[in-house]
Specification:
The complex is a heterodimer. Chain A is an alpha/beta fold. Chain A has eleven helices and 23 strands. In chain A, the strands form three sheets. In chain A, strands 5, 6, 8, 10, 11, 13, 15, 16, 18, 20 and 22 form an eleven-stranded mixed β-sheet that branches. By secondary structure, chain B is of the alpha/beta class. Chain B has one domain: Rossmann fold. In chain B, strands 6-9-10-3-11-12 form a six-stranded mixed β-sheet, sandwiched between helices. In chain B, strands 2-1-4-5 form a four-stranded antiparallel β-sheet, with helices on both faces. Chain B has a two-stranded antiparallel ribbon with strand order 7-8. The chains are: A alpha/beta, B alpha/beta. Chains A and B meet through helix 9 and helix 10 of A and helix 5, strand 6, strand 7 and helix 6 of B.
Chain lengths: ~475, ~300
Amino acid sequence: MGTQELLQERSEYKWGFVTPIESESLPKGLSEETIRAISAIKEEPEFLLNFRLKAYRKWLEMKEPTWSNVRYTPIDYQAITYYSAPKKKQSLNSLSEVDPEILRTFERLGVPLDEQKRLANVAVDVVFDSVSLGTTFQKTLQEAGVVLCSISEAVHKYPELLEQYLGSVVPIGDNFFAALNSAVFTDGSFVYVPKGVRCPIELSTYFRINDSQSGQFERTLIIAEDNSYVSYLEGCTAPAFDNNQLHAAVVELVAKDHAEIKYATVQNWYAGDPKTGVGGIYNFVTKRGRCEGYRSKIRWTQVEAGAAITWKYPSCILQGDESVGEFYSVALTNGKMQADTGTKMIHLGKNTRSTIVSKGISADQSHNTYRGLVKVAPRAEGARNYTQCDSMLVGSECSANTFPYIEVGNQSSQIEHEASTSKMNEEQLFYLQTRGISREDAIQMIVNGFCKEVIQELPLEFAVEAQKLLTLKLEHSVG
Amino acid sequence: MLVPNHKSFYQDLRPGFSAGQSAERAGIFEQAVKREREAQQNKDGSKIAENFCGWVLEIKELHVTIEGKPILKGVNLTVRKGEIHAIMGPNGAGKSTLAKVLAGDPAYEVVSGEVLFLGQNILELDPEQRAHLGLFLGFQYPVELPGISNLQFLQTAYNAKRKARSEPVLSDEEFQKLLDERMELVEVRSEFKLRGVNEGFSGGEKKRNEILQMAVLAPALAILDETDSGLDIDAMRIVARGVSCLMNEENALLLITHYQRLLDYIRPHFVHVIIDGKVVQSGGAELALELENKGYDWLHPAEVNV
């Protein structure tokens, strides 16, 4: 089927096209040989191969967890391709040498890599199937001393940083999918912000799965040294295939004294056929940040609008005294989508603060669950948490659940939790329409009103896109 | 001046329509209105066509169902520029249905009949298109729109109408000025600008917010559905004064109400009684008083038919 035909058939997911390129893949299946092969292709140092093998052996002993509020047919881990990359004739010196088909792909996705057309003030690293294709704005970054590169490149350029930090926030045996990722991760982004540097531009990675059989196991590591600042955004899409594909990423953030990391995600993986639920991405992701230093700050902002199943909890370990963790999330499910998402705020240091604002929108026959843990360790004196958890239902066949867990080990802490459930309904739309506002604008106003506190945390360039995405997703679901 | 002086017009009609007469008269009333219109048209045919001969709303034999159940069973009503009409009737008679159908609520199905608004058939139009033509519905139960500020809402609505009518949209400053004026007129405090639309408003505040919207959008026809219910006397006085300020020779008002008391503040030119989906009685303002004393039972269609 040609790209155009696919597009027409799946007009509701306009990112669902496939790029016809030649790719090189490892045979399907997972074994020590697969891992050795990945490591060999990437010419990795000894420590990394050992890291992978250790993770693989742990993974073999682990069982796939079943506690989430999502249902899916068991994944056959031997039917997945663990490495797939666009075939290249020679090594690339710049993004302009990338296969023009791929460049066109990103242009259609609204992520132009062309030097003239690139997004203003955003440095983009693009990951296509298993590999990074390159990064824009290298010069600006170099001048500021900020490193943004693929993790494969970082393995060779900064092996000591990787050896020190990889797996330091999310240990290899942390959970089933993190162990799998640690064994087979192929690419992802690496960011290093040196002491005292305020990164002058937004950093961004765009992930694209193109191959129908490959899983995507990306690994991102961001290190912000003392008194530094960085804002990072990731975006994701995939073609519409009838089979389910696994996306099991691990993201680790480390913030030192007075450092601040903002990490934003706009996730729009293919969600499967909205009527039958066939196909779509399994988005099983482990994201965790460690506020290691005094007064360090990590903020997660996520707009989860795609994927057949989303299962992720971007978390903060508030280790440094007076450190701050924030989580702002919009999770939208429609069709037959399922989402079980939320956060964990682990208060270890004194006077640590955390804020959780979660907005769940469920439509059609989808299921949307917020699950969050606020944990205050006995020594975390004066810890404070504020949680706000709102759900919006669209239609009568969807569901929204909230599972807040609170564990408090210190008397001096303060925990607040607010929750609400509302319904976007025909009455609201009719009301706005009788005032002269079109139905489309009415949906956008209601959704934006509901998500305002989260959307305003996104970098400006992406806030508008995120609003459009949410409206587009809901247009077919209301009424 | 094509709009006839409605005072003399009513005086001509009223004596024949004092309350207490048979509901058959309602039909005669409509016919009289029709004759009057035809007479007007004959006087100056060409000009009348351009100017909709002063008729804001014409409802002809309107039949409406919801989920297959008939609610309106042949409603006829005519409203001209400068007129205030009150629609009264017991619970479940179809008053609110009429209001929502006029505004274009998709929950109702129009089975037959015609609704002309400023000479244009509006039944095929979306609610927003009707609003752009100048129709306004003040809701009985205004919905809450969390996170959308009153200011943003009103400005979007105002400019959407301007855009649809190919008029230039107002800048933020210009709109703020307009809004401040109108807020003063209907005595709404400026803090309401930044609050979410109806979010956490009391019943009375919601109703006043409806009047504010009406004041900003300046419709050719405003339909107020039970705007008086849930208001204390002070609030009602404010609402009534706001409404009175907004009335002029060019627009019209349809008040749907349960009680006569709002009509002490806003005196209607006509009162119509809807029972079981039909206008069973029409008359002048005194009809409302009579209803207050006698209730609706004496007008029940079953009895009328006997």
